[in-house]
Design a protein that fits this description.
Oligomer: single chain
Shape: globular
Strand order of the largest sheet: 5-4-6-7-8
Number of strands: 13
Largest sheet: 5 strands, mixed
Strand content: 25-35%
Structural class: alpha+beta
Distance between the termini: 22 Å
Helix content: 25-40%
Radius of gyration: 21 Å
Length: 326
């Protein structure tokens, strides 16, 4: 009976469900960077810095710095600016820069990269110093700067309500659901600093990647973690194919029409998804045919990074399986 009820809801909503409202978020083409003053030289440098961040976003986090024409593009960043505005921001000034979306997409294409513009969720930072205490925003500045330069935003854990790191590392569904509710992400970086080295764990969509770094200073350790984190996320999430792929995606944990609508919203919000068709339902799961600019396993990893889904057990006859988090 549950299968019939759920599938009836799908029929009422329609196999091609009405366009879902996308979550309101900052434009991926807009960046705010610090500036020491309002001189032409500093403004040009700020435009170049801002464009490097926007290009990283537009390329889905792929590293464009070695591409022919990249340096020239940064020198001419002003030609792509649609609007800019100065603002006072402690301890100095900032410049908000808004780039022309079409021009950015054209530039990414001219650099020989398949674009995948979309605001990726932030990475929640849970880093403890050598004293075992969680580091705050100021202490993590070098890590955040390295991540931002690669096109990734960060969020800072509330020390008074920090998740259990062991449960995060184990991808406990209830813990990940709570993180999504508070921080709107499925990406978490756990860190533990020691004397001259650090242990790191990146949790993305219920999968953990571990590594260790050594450096002469704490700032160097943190900056290295930001670059290492961005590289690992890129390898997992930014797998853009040369052509549209057809795959079958199974999603369990759907208990209501609201869950179904929420899932469709997440699917349509992913910039790589070209089309979604509901094929069937069984118990609390549903089967979808998805056209995407990336293989099904890479798409599943991207969807799990949103924080609303987690990797699920394999399901017969499908290319990837996920579980909806409540």
């Amino acid at each position: 009976m549950r299968l019939l009820r759920l599938f009836s809801l799908v029929l009422l909503l329609g196999f091609a469900a009405p366009p879902a409202l996308r979550a309101q978020s900052a434009s991926p083409y807009s960046v705010t960077v610090p500036v020491p003053d309002t001189s032409d030289t500093q403004r040009s440098d700020a435009f170049a810095t801002a464009l490097s961040q926007v290009l990283a976003r537009a390329a889905g986090g792929q590293d464009l710095r070695g591409k022919p024409g990249y340096d020239d593009a940064l020198k001419n960043a002003a030609s792509l600016v649609r609007h800019f505005q100065y603002a006072r921001a402690a301890p100095g000034m900032s410049l908000a820069v808004d780039f022309e979306p079409g021009a950015v997409r054209h530039l990414v294409s001219s650099l020989g990269v398949a674009g995948s513009v979309g605001a990726k969720p932030p990475v929640l930072l849970m880093v403890r110093g050598s004293d075992g205490q969680l580091l705050d925003k100021a202490a993590l500045a070098s890590l955040a700067a390295a991540a931002t330069a690669r096109g990734y935003g960060v969020a800072y854990v509330d020390p008074a309500n920090a998740p259990d790191p062991a449960k995060v590392d184990a991808a406990d569904p209830a813990t990940l659901a709570a993180i999504n509710q508070q921080y709107h992400t499925g990406l978490v970086l756990l860190g533990s600093l020691h004397d001259g080295d650090a242990d790191w764990t990146l949790v993305s969509g219920g999968k953990a990647q571990h590594w260790n770094d050594k450096a002469a200073t704490e700032d160097a350790l943190l900056a290295g973690a930001g670059n290492g984190m961005a590289a690992r996320i890129g390898r997992q999430l930014n797998v853009i194919g040369a052509a549209v792929s057809d795959g079958k995606l199974w999603v369990s944990g759907l208990k209501s029409a609201m869950d179904y609508a929420g899932l469709l919203n997440v699917l349509r919000a992913d910039p790589s998804v070209r089309g979604v068709v509901t094929l069937g339902a069984e118990n609390d799961g549903m089967l979808f045919a998805v056209k995407s600019a990336m293989p099904a396993d890479a798409l599943a990893a991207n969807l799990a990074a949103s924080g609303r889904l987690i990797s699920g057990p394999a399901h017969a006859g499908t290319d990837a399986s996920l579980r909806w988090l409540h």
